[in-house]
Amino acid sequence: MREMENIQPTASAPPLFGTAGHVDHGKSALVKALTGTDPDRLPEEQQRKISIRLGFAFLETPAGELAFVDVPGHERLVREMVAGAVGFDAVLLVVAADEGVMPQTREHLDVVELLGIRRGVVALTKVDLVEDGEWLTLLEDDVRETLSRTGLAGAGIIRTSAKTGVGLEELKRELVRLAEESKREDDSGRPFRLAADRSFKMEGFGAVVTGTVATGVLRVGDSVEVQPGGGSARVRGLQVNARSREAVSPGMRAAVNLTGLSKRGVRRGDEIVTTGCVVLSNRLDAKVRLLASAAELQSLCRLKLLKGTSELGCRLVLLDREKLKPGEECLAQIELEGSHPVFFGERFILRIPSPSITVAGGRVLDPLAQKHRRKRASYREALVELDGAGSREALPLWLKHNPLPRKDLTTQELAARSNLVPPAAEEELSRLADAGAIIKLAADRWLHPRWRHGLVENLGQALDKVLANRLPFCRLDRGRLSSLAGRNVEDGALRDAIAGLVEAGRLRPVGSSYAVLPHGEPTAEQKSRIAEAKKALENAENLALADFENLRPDAALDLAHYLEAAGNAVFIGETHLWPAGRYEELRRIAIAMLKESGTLRVVEYKERAGLSRKTATLLLDHFHERGLT
């Protein structure tokens, strides 16, 4: 890295083209002829005339800069192609005119197809070695037939020669056209992510990591995490195409100068990610497609998973069948050997370990998957909806299909599952809450309406069970309601469920507790107790709970609340019941005395009402608390 003079301002990445094709078909020579840069940087590559590592080059055109990744054609190095395919806008497929479509041509096309790349052009190279025009025509027909079964069907075919320059200008025009028509997916709100393909140390600068930016923006001074196992670091400098920059964005081939790394440093396959946005997982759910040319796969088979610059051992668990037949797609769970960074929407390739053959690919739907019971179909509904969803579209789906016992999730949890930075996730969640699609709870938690309805219903059913042997009107404190709701219900969700029962007329706030409103008829025994209590009220100034003989304290309390709710009495101080008529008489006396003198004294009130001092004090305190006097 050089010093940061002449720093370039932040700019979007140039359109990125990846070369693909069989070994020694002239990919590197073509890229050099187009750009003037030899992508083969290793002596071994230059001697053997084949690419072993990714090579990068840039072409200046009147329409702007174009970037090229020269992907190796060697059969054992498909992983280098997967590493380079991050951020491809289109593919430049190279087929040698003197050989035609070859095994690695087809495998590269398979990888391009599995990674979802649908745009490109074919360069028929080395046409200077073929004098037979009929042969070239037949070869073009063969290429068209090969492409017809892929996403590149209909791509243009241009005859070229890196040696003589034939077709290069026409090829440049086609590349510019593809670049102008390319539309990148909206990347706003995603964390920065770069898979390291090289890492080295420079005297006086620290570690330098190179790779292609997959998502997000990284700026000088930002903090990042290196995972798995590399710890945290700070960005000291950034370069793109040997030019220092303030920031880098998706599709750019970047060199990142990091300081503060642990002794472990950065290794090939590590991910450089925005701090706090790394999801480490050893199990993921995905949509998987088996190539039509591959042999069928059995559930629980062992494979190699390639993503970014990583090659990971894994086991494939088919979720809705025992075998995956050629050309089929299915939902699957992939169990990784160890924990690794995994991101929603990330694409990957699956290969048989031996012989090393590309057989399938897919897209991550759930980076933090739970182990599924295959006979339960609920998770399949979730994965079907997540298939094809973008990061923001996934947010309400995580809440709707939350597999965890606790149904409310934090912004951080939702952001991690959806491959978003927390501020972007919170903005979208707030918009959804304002639209009524989800519910915002206290303490930065969110809930889907389906779970709110379920919580309200479950708590209501729990109330019915508890109150089966109690009067149809009683009070419960919040602690008791919490125990009825269950241990997996967080505080915010409980408050929302209680609010739902209040809205439904099942509960009424009374001080620090909640009155359970009438929800059924009393039993014959309960009716007898109620009748006895009413009779006792007619013959007494007031009744204390202790006067209810042969009743447990909770049953006596239920009876008092029931009589109050029925309008027969007023419950004062949680200790005494006053007949409704006598209570109203005593309240009017207090109001009249207040109007007469402007004050209320206990001594005067007790004399006029005919009460004891203790009882008069109790009543006046009650009137004051209720705002009646």
UniProtKB/TrEMBL annotation:
Primary subcellular site in the record, as a coarse category: cytoplasm
Localization (cell): Cytoplasm
InterPro entries given in the database record: Beta-barrel_SelB, EF-Tu_GTPase, EFTu-like_2, P-loop_NTPase, T_Tr_GTP-bd_dom, Transl_B-barrel_sf, Transl_elong_EF1A/Init_IF2_C, Transl_elong_SelB
Superkingdom field: Bacteria
Coiled-coil portions: none
Limits of the Tr-type G domain: 12-183
A Pfam family that the UniProt record links to this protein: GTP_EFTU_D2
Gene3D superfamilies attached to this UniProt entry: P-loop containing nucleotide triphosphate hydrolases (3.40.50.300), Translation factors (2.40.30.10), Winged helix-like DNA-binding domain superfamily/Winged helix DNA-binding domain (1.10.10.10)
SUPFAM superfamilies per UniProt: EF-Tu/eEF-1alpha/eIF2-gamma C-terminal domain, P-loop containing nucleoside triphosphate hydrolases, Translation proteins
GO BP annotations, alphabetical order: selenocysteine incorporation
Keyword GTP-binding: yes
GO molecular function, one term: translation elongation factor activity
NCBIfam families from the UniProt entry: selB
Stated role: Translation factor necessary for the incorporation of selenocysteine into proteins. It probably replaces EF-Tu for the insertion of selenocysteine directed by the UGA codon. SelB binds GTP and GDP.
Name of the protein this chain belongs to: Selenocysteine-specific elongation factor
Lineage: Bacteria, Candidatus Coatesiibacteriota
